[in-house]
Request: fold
Amino acid sequence: MELRHLQYFVVLAETLHFGRAAELLHISQPPLSRQIALLEKELGVVLFDRTRRSVRLSAAGERFFLDAKEILSSVQRAKRNALTASLGHTGTLSVGFMFSATYSVVPAIARAYTSTYPEVDLQLTESIPALLVEEIRASNSDVGIMYPPEDTEGLETRTVFREPLVVALPADHPLARCPTIEASELRKESFLISPRRAAPYIYDAIVSHCKQCGFVPKIRLETNYQQTIVNLVGQGLGVALVHRSMKTARPLNVKFRTLANPPIVDLNVSWNQENHNPCIETFVAVANQISNELTNGTG
Reply:
């Protein structure tokens, strides 16, 4: 039994007229009659009661009609599902992200993506940049939202957000009274920073900027997360250069001040070139859309 046999049967059952059914199926009447006869033979039942003047469904035909329509409907649904999955409209997508990105682009991208593609199971996992690169290379995560990786071999990347670094100071620090601070004014301060092994991009950006301003930063403490860094700043343990978006964290006893001629840090979406999950393409498209909205001030 083939799908076309079910299609022939359903059309005939709906029209109850061999000539009209053949016309709708774009075949001649004799082949349709033969196919229906073969179907009845295969099933071992009479599907239609035929007279010279009429055709009507038998009791077996009425039951078979309901099942055949359901089968054809299921096939059409399966075809649609396969198509939408191939286009990245359904499926599962695992996205790793740096913790600090929750204060900038991650919420906006996640909201837009789940709204546009509600049938995709979006799985968000927080990690540190160095581990994210390993997860993406191993395809344990489909996409990473993170700093540009040092080694991009085998990876695709797109920049989706850029922001300057600002100075985070204890609220009672003398420099907290200044709206703008030169990095050279921090030469005697103790710095809190992410370790290079965890986040080489931001570590190098901060150290290089300080060196360009005539000093090597005195690093007092290293910790992986920007949120932890600003909280420790609030405890008076030092100063830090952090993403401007960290202001939205509103940590206690911390003042954020503009850094003169600050480094600009990028956030990228990155994925493995060999990962062919179609949901990656739809996610990157949404991330680019959000990036454009933020750049143009509409997001």
Remarks:
- The first strand starts at residue 48 and ends at 50.
- Residues 162-265 form a domain with the D-Maltodextrin-Binding Protein; domain 2 fold (CATH 3.40.190.10).
- DSSP finds nine helices and twelve strands in the chain.
- The longest helix spans residues 59-86.
